[in-house]
Amino acid sequence: MLKGNHQSSYEAKDIQVLEGLEAVRRRPGMYVGGTDIKALHHLIYEVVDNSIDEALAGACDRIEVIIHPDSSVTVSDNGRGIPVDLHPQMKKPALEVVMTTLHAGGKFGGGSYKVSGGLHGVGVSAVNALSEWCQVEVQRDGKVHFQRYERGYPTGPVEVIGKAPANATGTKTTFKYDAEIFKGDLDYRFDTLTQRLREMAFVTRGVTIILKDERSDREMAFYFEGGITSFVRYLNRNRTVLHPVVHVEKEVDGITIDAAIQYTDAYAESVYAFANTINTIDGGTHLTGLRSAITRTINDYARRAGLLKESDPNFTGDDTREGLTAIISVKHPDPQFESQTKVKLMNPEVQTYTQQVVGEAFSTFLEENPSAGKLIVQKCLTSARARDAARKARDLVIRKSALESLTLPGKLADCSERDPQKTELYIVEGDSAGGSAKQGRDRHFQAVLPLRGKILNTERARLDKILANNEVKALISALGTGIGEGFDLSGLRYGRVIIMTDADVDGSHIRTLLLTFFFRYMAPLIEDGHLYIAQPPLYRLAYKNQVRYLYTESEKDRVLQELGVDGEKVNLQRYKGLGEMNPDQLWETTMDPSQRTLLLVTVEDAAEADRTFDMLMGSEVPPRKRFIQTHAREVRNLDI
Ligand code: 0RA
Which among 121, 336, 419, 493 is least surrounded, fewest beta carbons within 10 Å? Predict the structure, then answer.
């Protein structure tokens, strides 16, 4: 009787365990986030997380991941090994409990097992349940212990299968994902794993993580002496940095705060936040703490150092984020995440601690390195100015309303057609050329906006200043799309936007400026194929009673040769500017759709102009050049 009772309670626990594993198989989404390729990779991360926990406890410094040709995966570490002694309540070896009970992984072992990553907190048992088969080998107490499972169920007891080498301890898990669960043509991606394991190595200083892919014979090893300082150096490897990496690592109330900061001359922000080695892509309290510490510290410093005047407003968060590369990595014994997927850290105390620790370290750095401090503040000033100018330009963008025509710029000679599919806007340099274009155009579908050539000369400094220019404001209102983040192609009032400038140096400067402007503030206009450059002729050739227009030097040379030139008989006129053409000539040569040539501007053209613009303006080119080249190649090349 007694024995029977005993047995039934044992069985009840047993049933509980098995029901747990069945639940995982029935609803994998709840435990590993689905059954797609992402979830498949999560299986590996879940197992690796357990080894990372050993490393965080200081008990392991080597983790190896092997993808076998049959897509089974081995994860091994040189940690203490999962305990194999009898679990007092479950009356089974601890190893079996860990492998078959949900949530048993990290909680097991008590105080020494401080920080638990665990992607979904379900531990390796969920991976076991979702595996066609799984085998664990534990080296501990001089022995090698072994157990095998199929779809989560042990196929036999924990057995000793050999002797471990002297002092060797560790855990080796091999699993083959269950194709009944993960359906379709799925397989592990080396590059995806590389990325995640590299991150894990960065935020777990001192650990070596090795990835071997036996399917392709590729192998990678990650070890970063400098921890997240190395991470920041890695992220900035192709950028121009403004100062050495600022690093701080401190434990407050059992929570480790590890942060590294470095500014570059780039525009983008590269900030990554980790909680217990998990990349929290939605951020959370650690990220908020880091950001507010940085903004506050820079404002305080800039005021103290007299770099912000009393009348200047404080830098906003956005102002202090351009060019910022930073890592914040916290290790928390009891992390609270927003959801199962663990992409946002919620613990409120983490924000306070992070802000304190980072603020103190960054402030000390700025005080001790005034030249770095000055560069950083200057970078923020530039961002603030650009943001201000962009906002002003956005503010003057008209909405599509009954007032539309009233708010159009006075200089615009609009067309009568309202269907943007059919309309064209000529942006013309100079008032005199503007006059010819206005008279020569077909006013039914062609609008003309003259721009004065002074823009470039008077505002030689920065594009954000150029945005404040009245001519450019007129252009923005005429187009009706808004600019920058607020750009909306559906507001475009003209299907073709045509830049028409003189074929001289000033003309080419204006063209460069306009292309740069469109590239930076209205890129979709270019990408969608709305921006063109007009091709006015260079020469007018009158011969007997014929007139020909010649568009290039080589065309001129060829034609003169063909005619067997005799200076007496031909009248060759070189156009120095559009203003020299009368309205009829301008129509015939440059504006008449049946005769003209238009160059469609590609993103590459505009990017080239952007580079030229920076050269003209004398600011640094190389960093953006890289950006543009990368992006330009993604876009189709559509020269007409
Ligand atoms: C519980 C307690 C101890 C270690 C582990 C679990 C452990 C789990 C995994 C999972 C993969 N590798 C692992 N290594 C260790 C501590 C046992 C002790 O104090 O010796």
Answer: 419
460-488 per-residue burial string, b: 16 or more CB within 10 A, e: under 16: eeebbbbbebebbbbbbbbbbbbbbeebe
Let me know if residue 367 belongs to a domain.
Answer: yes
Place of tokens 């090994």: 81
- Give pLDDT tens digits for 336-389: 998 766 689 999 999 999 999 999 999 999 999 999 999 999 999 988 887 777
- Residues in contact with ligand 1 (CB, 6 Å cut-off): 50-51, 54, 77, 79-83, 108-109, 112-113, 171
Label the pairing between strands 170-177 and 72-77.
antiparallel
Residue 170 Cα: closest atom of ligand 1: 14
- DSSP string for 344-390: SB--HHHHHHHHHHHHHHHHHHHHH-HHHHHHHHHHHHHHHHHHHHH
Q: Which of 431, 504, 528, 584 is flagged as catalytic?
A: 504
**For atom 12 of ligand 1, which residue has the closest CA?**
51
502 catalytic? Reply is: yes
Which domain does 448 fall in, by range?
408-536+599-634
3-state secondary structure 116-174: CCCCCCCCHHHHHHCEEEEEEEEEECCEEEEEEEECCEECCCCEEEEECCCCCCEEEEE
| One domain for residues 96 and 207 | yes
CA dist., res. 202 & res. 188, Å (int): 22
Q: Could you read off the pLDDT of 604-640 as tens digits, one per residue?
A: 777 677 656 655 554 443 333 333 333 222 222 222 2
Do 445 and 601 touch, CB atoms closer than 8 A? no
Residue for token pair 């030229």:
612
Residue 286 has pLDDT above 50, yes or no: yes
**Cα 621 from Cα 614, distance rounded (Å):** 6
The backbone torsions φ and ψ at residue 23, rounded to the nearest 5 degrees and listed phi first, read -60, -40
Ligand 1, pocket-test mutation among 167, 171, 207, most atoms within 8 A of CB: 171
Please count the structural domains in the chain.
3
> Is-catalytic flag, 132?
no
Map residue 574 onto helix, strand or coil.
strand
Ligand 1 center–CA 430 separation, angstroms: 78
CA of 168 to the centre of ligand 1 (A): 14
User: Same domain for 35 and 167?
Assistant: yes
- Residue 161 sits in the same domain as residue 238: no
pLDDT for position 567: 60
506 catalytic per annotation: yes
